[in-house]
Design goal:
Bound molecules: dioxothiomolybdenum(VI) ion
Number of helices: 17
Strand order of the largest sheet: 3-5-1-11-8-9-10
InterPro entries: Ald_Oxase/Xan_DH_a/b, Ald_Oxase/Xan_DH_a/b_sf, Ald_Oxase/xanthine_DH-like, AldOxase/xan_DH_MoCoBD1, AldOxase/xan_DH_MoCoBD2, AldOxase/xan_DH_Mopterin-bd_sf
Distance between the termini: 55 Å
Structural class: alpha+beta
Pfam families: Ald_Xan_dh_C (PF01315), MoCoBD_1 (PF02738), MoCoBD_2 (PF20256)
Oligomer: single chain
Protein name: Dehydrogenase
Shape: globular
CATH class of the largest domain: Alpha Beta
GO molecular function, one term: oxidoreductase activity
Largest sheet: 7 strands, mixed
Helix content: 10-25%
Radius of gyration: 27 Å
Length: 750
């Protein structure tokens, strides 16, 4: 059984239960420290001066007035900075797209609005901020181009593929003629706005210069190994000279995958001044790097009158910076979610004068599945087939691209259980047919899909004579519950109470792990922890078996279980020894092991691994005011084994909230004359607030998967995919108006 950690039955175990976060008390009492909260003796504070133009060059910088402010140590610019690596290559990081990464304060060139042009370093933050306002920068400006559709003419195929991103598959069948010959056709353009991640905690880095000349770096990052790699390359340091930590994050959503420029600037200043430096970005400055790129897509679906898909074409265009070819998987989902003999998927980029876009929760899938699943709803109306029936008619248990079966795909159970919970059978499909008082009511649904990935990860566990276990893994807990699930896995594997297990994360001194992203952390680091614990369990068992008169003397390891602090023969608890007695009697201070996990190649040869969902949404719309409220969402998720039903549910709740934001609110608006995002604060860039959120119901359907020994597929991203389509489809059902352009704001309803 893939999902069993220990064969004991009837004992208290933690995996699979609803457990509160082990780091919850630290977070709510303020004990948990974030990157911008760590202090050091003589800590200096850096404040970033941001470019006032979008494109061009700096002609002069006058920092005299700023440097004259008492308490200012230095104003660092490209003219007076210490020497740094010259090759763009040296600024690569673990998840960088192809291209030449941005180098802060490198030279006079300005490539995007808000680019850092100086760092004012002072004895406190307010002094640095005030002095920054006195720095006079002169520019020679050029006209920026930031309008995606205006640049569509010079769009291009990514010249080099991005690591981990599959390019669109070769077309199969003949989608063009199949579409032309189809009895029922839908072909439309869909748009999604630029979005910024907007974690509650803005980016921050604290670089502490230690007495021995090494650096301890606290960075807001989803994987400390990435900060360390970036700093060692850019500053020519050795890994042992730079320890990076990120024990807690106030939200990442992908903007913490790559090291950002405040980390670079903090290290630059620390080296220049030979003192510890902290750089915290402002909310406004959070609009000067990574974002989800707005996209223009065309989806064409051809079907017969029974709704069987005969052609799928999906084309997407989005922007990237002038210096990197950021890529995400927008169109590939349209070849995987349904079975169809004629499919053509195309994908192009256009150069814009913005910072490089980046991964934002379910990158690509949020964009592409919105278009596909809205088009499917349009096809449901065109064929007069119920949206769920239409999807079942085109269901596939095999990945049509790889021609391999899915290891598991409980999407039909999602349809059934989701529809039942939502009350879908009571839906009158006629648009504008349902009302609640003066509000129009709409019910819509859509599917979601995301990859179930696994990466190489390792974990070290140490059991001490007092029966306590320490678990270490360098990945970050980005708010997902990683501390908790790893603690559950370890406690179960060694039969210990949760309180006796301490999990440490987010530190390059811990066992190597990937960045926390892609919904792969539970599968990757969870498996590594489980393997390390099994190793320690086996060591403890061998000691126990060797004890004089041991009740385990003639027993194999496979026949014992670790439960309630004892090692016992499965089904015969009378034959047992106490774990701490074993340690004491054998004079063992510690037992330790490092476990490594990597993707199962044999599994991957035979199967494809994806998570799926069916999302149901109810909207109520006041037509006079054009206000849409999402009054109910039911999200039914098939994601393999759920390790912790409480933290997993929270992942889906948060993702649905973010999906509501994407559907109705979130839009970073560019003024193309200035090439600048204009609504750079949470007042003008609205993320859903409590008043926007009503009932959200999460269902985890049973799904057994064998991609990894835990049977987990990951839940960090699947909850946002398809949510915006379910809402746009509900808006159509309510109003009869099809809005293909996110976010669905008041002006589009009226
Ligand atoms: Mo996620 S966009 O991989 O943090």
């Amino acid at each position: 059984m893939a999902t069993q950690i220990s064969p004991a039955s009837g004992r208290d175990t933690f995996v699979g239960r609803a457990m509160s976060r082990v780091d919850g008390p630290a977070k709510v009492t303020g004990l948990a420290k974030y990157a911008g909260e760590f202090a050091a003796p003589n800590l200096a504070h850096g404040y970033v001066v941001s470019s006032a133009i979008t494109k061009g060059r700096i002609t002069a910088i006058d920092a005299a007035a700023a440097e004259a402010v008492p308490g200012v140590f230095k104003v660092i610019t490209h003219e007076n900075r210490p020497s740094i690596a010259g090759e763009a290559e040296a600024y690569q990081d673990m998840v960088a797209p192809p291209g030449a990464p941005f180098r802060a304060l490198y030279d006079e060139t300005i490539a995007f609005s808000g680019q850092p042009v100086a760092l004012v370093v002072a004895e406190d933050f307010d002094t640095a901020r005030y002095a920054a306002s006195l720095v006079r920068v002169s520019y020679e400006a050029e006209t920026p181009h930031t309008d995606l559709e205006a640049q569509a003419g010079s769009s291009y195929d990514p010249p080099e593929k991005r690591d981990g991103i599959k390019p669109p598959p070769e077309p199969w069948g003949d989608a063009g003629s199949a579409f032309d010959g189809a009895a029922i056709k839908v072909s439309q353009q869909y748009r999604i706005a630029h979005e910024h991640h907007n974690p509650m905690e803005p980016h921050a880095s604290t670089v502490v210069v230690e007495d021995d000349g090494t650096y301890t770096v606290y960075d807001k990052i989803q994987g400390v190994a990435n900060s360390q790699l970036y700093l060692t390359n850019a500053f020519g340091l050795k890994p042992e000279q730079v320890r990076c930590l990120s024990p807690y994050m106030g939200g990442g959503f992908g903007c913490g995958l790559r090291p950002q420029y405040q980390l670079f600037l903090a290290m630059l200043a620390a080296q220049d001044l030979n003192r510890s430096v902290r750089v915290v970005l402002t909310r406004d400055q959070m609009w000067s790097f990574t974002y989800r790129p707005g996209a223009v897509q065309t989806v064409s679906l051809g079907a017969d009158t029974s709704g069987n898909l005969q052609a799928i074409r999906h084309d997407a265009l989005h922007g990237t910076s002038q210096y990197e070819d950021y890529q995400e998987n927008i169109v590939n989902w349209s070849g995987i979610l349904y079975g169809c003999d004629n499919v053509e998927l195309t994908y192009r980029l256009a150069k814009l004068d913005t910072a490089t876009p980046g991964d934002m929760r379910a990158p690509g899938a949020v964009t592409g599945v919105f278009a596909l699943e809205t088009a499917m709803d349009e096809l449901a109306y065109a064929t007069r087939i119920d949206p769920i029936q239409l999807r079942i008619a085109n269901y596939t248990d095999t990945d049509p691209v790889e021609e391999k079966p899915f290891g598991s795909k409980a999407l039909k159970a999602c349809f059934r259980q989701g529809a039942e919970r939502f009350g879908w059978s009571k839906r009158n499909p006629e648009p504008r047919s349902m009302r609640d008082g003066k509000e129009l009511v709409g019910w819509g649904m859509a599917c979601g899909i995301w990859e179930a990935l696994m990466m190489e990860s390792s974990a070290k566990v140490t059991l001490t004579a007092d029966g306590r276990l320490e678990v270490g893994n360098s990945t970050g807990d980005i708010g997902t519950g990683t501390y908790t699930i790893l603690t559950q896995i370890a406690a179960d594997a060694l039969g210990l109470p949760m309180e006796h297990v301490t999990t440490k994360l987010g530190d390059t001194d811990l066992a190597k792990a990937p960045v926390a992203g892609g919904s792969w952390t539970a599968a990757s680091s969870g498996t590594a922890v489980m393997k390390a614990c099994r190793d320690v369990a086996e060591q403890a068992f061998k000691l126990a078996r060797g004890l004089e008169g041991s009740p385990l003397a003639n027993v194999d390891f496979e026949r014992v279980v670790f439960s309630k602090g004892r090692i016992e023969v499965a089904g015969d608890p009378a034959k047992s020894v106490v774990l701490t007695d074993v340690m004491r009697q054998t004079g063992t201070e510690t037992l330790e092991a490092t476990g490594s996990a990597s993707p199962d190649k044999d599994f991957a040869k035979q199967y494809e691994a994806y998570t799926h969902s069916a999302v149901f949404a109810e909207v109520k719309i006041d037509e006079e005011l054009g206000i849409v409220r999402v009054t109910r969402v039911v999200s039914a998720i098939a994601a393999g084994k759920i390790l912790n039903t409480k933290t997993a549910r929270s992942q889906i709740l948060g993702a649905v909230v973010m999906g509501i934001g994407s559907a109705l609110h979130e839009e970073s608006m560019l003024d193309h004359r200035l090439g600048r995002f204009m609504n750079r604060n949470l007042g003008e860039y609205h993320v859903p607030a409590n008043a926007d959120i009503h009932d959200i119901d999460v269902i985890f359907v049973d799904e057994e998967d064998k991609a990894n020994p835990l049977g987990v597929k990951g839940v960090g991203e699947i909850g946002i995919v398809g949510t915006a389509a379910a809402i746009s489809n509900a808006v159509f059902h309510a109003t009869g108006k099809r809005i293909r352009d996110l976010p669905i704001t008041v002006d589009k309803i009226l």
